[in-house]
Amino acid sequence: xxxxxxxxxxxxxxxxxxxxxxxxxxxxxxxxxxxxxxxxxxxxxxxxxxxxxxxxxxxxxxxxxxxxxxxxxxxxxxxxxxxxxxxxxxxxxxxxxxxxxxxxxxxxxxxxxxxxxxxxxxxxxxxxxxxxxxxxxxxxxxxxxxxxxxxxxxxxxxxxxxxxxxxxxxxxxxxxxxxxxxxxxxxxxxxxxxxxxxxxxxxxxxxxxxxxxxxxxxxxxxxxxxxxxxxxxxxxxxxxxxxxxxxxxxxxxxxxxxxxxxxxxxxxxxxxxxxxxxxxxxxxxxxxxxxxxxxxxxxxxxxxxxxxxx
Length: 310
Known about the structure:
- By secondary structure, the protein is an alpha/beta fold.
- Helices cover 59% and strands 8% of the residues.
- It is built from 15 helices and five strands.
- The radius of gyration is 25 Å and the shape is elongated.
């Protein structure tokens, strides 16, 4: 079995689930864990060799993206004649290392479990809802959104927050409960600053910006996030009235288009041009044209927020 992808929490759960299924069949199943980066030739053959009493075994090889040449060679050889009483689990976090082995696994009878990073806000809120449901708890949509905003995009932290709320509270989970536990935490990324600025919420945008700068975020990626947000608005605005085919040609995800269309209800071509000009000026300033890049990005955030039509 191949557990593939960079999302560590999902990968850890997948491996644990596979081991759990093996233990349901045989409580005494032997579990062996190997580090692919420290693998020595012949080890796989030793741990998968036929057992005297034919016990089931699980062999988990972690870090295949850092595998030694010996592991790749031994694993390829093993795939040609796997042992019936052995479950071999290969964990690959991403990259090109071991591609020949991965291709062989996918082309053969191996099971592939995809554990890709969760990036969309909708997927993060769905994850939180599912976590709470697993714990026998429910939260309204506003509370789920507040928890994602407060804790951030790291799934392991989100899972931990859900576990804490499930253990420490009773009844339905509302926004008030989330704010009581996590109200002081803000994920002040450049994209959240950009979202607030484009929505015209100058106070929130500046608060997020100052928090981001205070915690070490460089002004350059914040300006880049502002520019990216405005570029999407400009692209979607240019397709209005030209049909769905023109929108598809933009190469944007459906959720990006939907959000841009909502944002554009309060933007005119003139205000959008003014905002883009302000961000272009800030881009030059944070890259060396100004002695105070933090002031430059704050000024750009205020100009973008004020450009939005009321």
